[in-house]
């Protein structure tokens, strides 16, 4: 499984002042990825503009590329749960946890093909 990890550490916030940079970073990702891990470790704040940008990315990748969110702070996790985004986009405590899940899926898929 081919995946890319995109870090947003330099943003600090995902709001109207930074959403353009968020979109530009995602636009640089090649379309031949099976999954994209969004590393939000450096994001301390998110507003409705940021949520809208995440939803737009989820909609554009739906059915083509798996999108995972990692490293979110507790306040942002609560926002994702209140808006029910967590039911569409899996949330992970760290990049390594997200990657481990992807690797387990790959192992499971290989096992099913071999059976």
TrEMBL record:
GO terms for molecular function: anti-sigma factor antagonist activity. PROSITE patterns: STAS. InterPro entries: STAS_dom, STAS_dom_sf. Residues 12-102 form the STAS domain. Gene3D superfamilies: STAS domain. This is STAS domain-containing protein. It comes from Candidatus Electrothrix aestuarii.
